[in-house]
Specification:
Layout lengths: L1 E6 L5 H10 L4 E6 L6 H13 L5 E4 L4 H6 L5 E6 L1 H9 L7 H14 L3 E7 L10 H20 L2 E6 L2 E6 L5
Parallel strand pairs: 1-5, 1-6, 2-3, 2-4, 4-5
Antiparallel strand pairs: 6-7
């Protein structure tokens, strides 16, 4: 079971994903893509850590998510937070030319895994077109990434104002 959970900033998507993962049986694995590059991000990470109980195993991986997913199986529940930070890590990397290959490997890993996977991401394509080239590239790549993952996901949930809306899967379109 793969669930893509999207929403805007402070929409409640991470809280929803955490509760959904905790309701599942299996070994809980939190896969963090964030890096603590400044004080504000360090505080965000601390807040997220405080929400999880000690039953969670933490895997920090800012770029190579396919390798992480491949390590787990039917006894595991993976919560990957978040895909847009993962994309940002690639866009700002000297290895950006490897992004498309890694994305395809990640999609294959999702398709092949027997683990339950919940993927948290930010919806960023509903705003205006930016004048900044990197911002436009980020919005384009995140839109394509989200479409590709939604195609292989069993369930797609949009979180708005803390409320889940099922777009695909049980109860959705």
């Amino acid at each position: 079971m793969i669930e893509l959970i999207a929403g805007g900033a402070r929409s409640g998507k991470s809280t929803y994903a955490l509760k959904a993962a905790e309701a599942k049986s299996g070994n809980k694995v939190f896969v963090a893509t964030a890096t603590a590059d400044d004080d504000e991000m360090k505080e965000r990470i601390i807040r997220h850590q405080a929400q999880r109980n000690r039953d969670w195993r933490l895997v920090e991986q800012p770029q190579y998510l396919a390798k992480v997913v491949e390590q787990f199986g039917s006894a595991d529940v993976l919560l990957i937070d978040c895909l847009t930070l993962w994309l940002s890590n690639w866009l700002c990397s000297e290895r950006y030319d490897q992004w498309e290959r890694e994305k395809q490997q990640f999609l294959r890993a999702l398709t092949d895994t027997e683990a339950e996977v919940l993927l948290v991401t930010n919806e960023v394509g509903m705003g205006v077109v930016s004048a900044n080239q990197l911002s436009r590239q980020f919005v384009d790549q995140s839109g394509w990434l989200h479409q590709d993952i939604a195609a292989v996901a069993d369930r797609v949930t949009m979180i708005m104002f803390g409320l889940p809306y099922c777009l695909k899967g049980e109860g959705g379109g």
